[in-house]
Amino acid sequence: MKTIALIIIFLSFRFTTNAQWFWQNPFPTGNLLADVQLISSQVGWAVGESGTLLKTLDEGTNWINKSISSNLDLRGINFID
Question: For residue 35, what are the contacts with CB-CB under 8 A and spacing of at least 6?
Answer without folding.
Answer: 46, 47, 48, 74, 75, 76, 77
